[in-house]
From TrEMBL, chains A, B:
The keyword Transferase applies. Transmembrane segments: none annotated. The lineage of its organism: Bacteria, Bacillati, Actinomycetota, Actinomycetes, Propionibacteriales. Pfam families: SpoU_methylase. Keywords: Methyltransferase, Transferase. CDD domains: SpoU-like_rRNA-MTase (cd18095). It comes from Nocardioides cavernae. This is RNA methyltransferase. InterPro entries: Alpha/beta_knot_MTases, Ribosomal_eL30-like_sf, rRNA_Methyltransferase, SpoU_MeTrfase, tRNA_m1G_MTases_N. GO terms for biological process: methylation. One of its GO terms (molecular function) is methyltransferase activity.
Length: 264, 264
């Protein structure tokens, strides 16, 4: 427990300017760290086996996490809420912050071992959506998540927060080979079902009927799936929608598709 | 078309400080206005019959909306993007802004006329969620939306944007009487189905099976439904979820419930 009163203290470097997405991306990559925010999420990160570099807390948040802090040998910096706001650049509603070490991503084999229902995300760009998809997948019985090389980072603070820490309980990794990602899953015994508005799509319920090992494939917010992924999936599926309406956003679509898949 | 070069011009008062939620709430209520952002959403607002007070555009956005501007007698203020940012307090990615007149809310009778599937939102606080629910409802075949007196404003800029303008195409209003809102719907021939984690909840698919006129009832992000609404609904329903997982967020839950309801 280290009380600080200087927001410029170099020991607080991990927590600078949390709203500056570009700066955070490079800072976190360079130092191999990620940030968790809020008592519940910090607790889940530590309980999920992630090693803390440090914690940053306002005094009134210490009690709720006392047991978690005890488990860790990392320093806990204590600052007033006003000073925390100066460091991070915004008012941290849920008080507790932790800087944690990134671990090497596990091999695809490990993530898929024993999995029956897998989400595969291509190039989502919005951290909120990535978090929402992890959360819905976990709630609706999906066992694992695979990400294309360029999909937005599920360990970005906002992804973790929106996902309520599901990224810590769901095995996930990135596929090394974008081009052959879906054929590779087919070879492993998964039926790959791509969610798309394309013309040969089946209603989702029909597309997943009778499928044992399922890989449900989602594309980016703007343009959906790449033509390569759309064409190389075993099946294409659509959520039946009212005429003339914009499609569901990817978070809503993934929730519906996971629900339909969970009942296959 | 009025070119301006002073971000302090009083004619731009409708567009000030768009990120200051509290200020916007009181400003918009006082002047009976709301703001639409982005070419597609502005177009839908005008096509939905909303009267513009004014438009605010950067030069490169004029062409895309030329036909819409022609339909309206309201002034269109043209400012550089840098000056628009000074007025609004942030970078307006999609350029076009319009300030529109709020209309009196229609009576519940009008909104429910002919409706078979209605969403009823209690006290959602997050504008993003309100917009997402409108969008999912419209995509999945819901005909109308009713809001409790304290539910967040669907005409707030962010609600409209996330909802892709579904609030302009879906009939909606506020119920005047919070306490008896659900019994009143039952008297009108709707079966009210409340989404809740409560102990006597049926799986959603079972709860909506065979229902003709359906009112699907959703509670707030934090605490869900009030006990009054939970108890006064005809049925309670749950989305079956994996053990030990936090519930779905309200946007995901509403998408799943609308999907299940659409297939009843």
């Amino acid at each position: 427990m280290v009380e600080l009163d200087d927001p410029g203290d170099p020991r607080l470097a991990d927590y600078r300017d949390l709203r500056d997405v570009e700066l955070r991306k490079s800072l976190e990559a360079e130092h191999g760290l990620f940030l968790a925010e809020g008592e519940k999420v910090v607790r889940r990160a530590i309980e999920g086996g992630h090693e803390a570099r440090s914690f940053l807390m306002a005094p009134r948040w210490l009690d709720g996490l006392a047991d978690v802090l005890e488990l860790s040998s990392a320093p806990c910096y204590v600052l007033s809420e006003a000073l925390i706001e100066q460091v991070t650049g915004f008012h941290v509603h849920r008080g507790a912050l932790a800087s944690l070490r990134r671990r090497p991503l596990p091999p695809v084999d490990d993530v898929l071992a024993g999995a029956r229902s897998v989400l595969v995300l291509e190039d989502l760009v919005d951290h909120t959506n990535v978090g929402a998809v992890f959360r819905s997948g976990a709630a609706l019985g999906f066992d694992a998540v695979l990400l294309a090389p360029r999909c937005a980072d599920p360990l970005y603070r906002r992804s973790i927060k929106v996902g309520m820490g599901a990224v810590f309980s769901t095995p996930w990794t990135r596929v090394p080979d974008w081009y052959d990602a879906l054929p590779d899953l087919s070879r492993r015994g998964f039926t790959t079902v791509a969610l798309t508005l394309g013309p040969d799509s089946l209603p989702i319920e029909e597309a997943v009927a009778g499928v044992d090992r399922l890989a449900l494939v989602l594309g980016s917010e703007g343009h959906g799936l790449s033509s390569r992924w759309e064409a190389s999936a075993d099946r294409r599926a659509v959520i039946p929608m009212a005429a003339g309406i914009d499609s569901l956003n990817v978070a809503a679509a993934s929730a519906v598709a996971c629900y339909a898949a969970a009942r296959r």
